[in-house]
């Protein structure tokens, strides 16, 4: 009996030590009060949505996705879906994605957000609100990998203006940089584009699972027959880099529009990029591109071409 007690005592001691070792290796399973450390700078909300609204446009911003666009609506018609990321993403050479809501390589760190509504500064202290005005300007300062980034969104009754400035913080190499992205609906059936030389190209969108356009462009539009909208994206300065291209990913879930700056490029410390895209929903488009071409011409006068 004494020997049996000794064996049981030793066995219990071993089990207690093993349990303590497991607990030490998995503290998250026992510490229910543990919270994730902040990613953004102090004072910048990390979750929730802030909705920008003018008479014609409604654009929620997603704090968790690096304070980027979540979706877009024009007069109640949703023409930008919330099933993909907007904004700027990059892939370092030999690595994974950084930027917006991507986590594969690393996170975009937001340092500051600023809001100006009809000329007045409006503090951003929380999400879950709708900001209304005639001219709403949103400015974000962040870091994406080795780039300092300033992204500006200006929403008016007429269009959505986006400008993004980037500066390399050190010498670095990229495999790919998508400067702007927009998730247009899969209900669009055709596209039209004006190339930098002024020529026009057109093509179908039929869920081909391929990229359409795939050239540098001045503007590109998609036709949504259901809502009779032309979905127009105009770049005053052609977004041109090494193997740059403007293209539409023709999938079942969306016809996502990418403005690719490069498909592999090296940057020196201090090197800067500065590009703009103007997004406009063009009403009363019948499929002959008349209204869309007219709108593009007006945008080119409002925001002159930059060589």
Short structural description:
This protein has 307 residues and is mainly beta.
Alpha plus pi helix count: 2
Strand order of the largest sheet: 8-7-10-11-12-22-18-17-14-15
Report Rg. Answer: 25 Å
CATH architecture: Distorted Sandwich
The name of the CATH superfamily reads: alpha-galactosidase from lactobacil brevis
- CATH topology value: Beta-galactosidase, Chain A, domain 5
List the domain count as a whole number.
1
CATH first level: Mainly Beta
Biggest sheet record: 10 strands, antiparallel
Strand tally is 22
State the end-to-end CA separation.
Answer: 95 Å
The percentage helix is 10-25%
Helix-strand string: HEEEEEEEEEEEEEEEEEEEEEEH
Shape: globular
Strand share of the residues?
A: 35-45%
Class from secondary-structure proportions? mainly beta
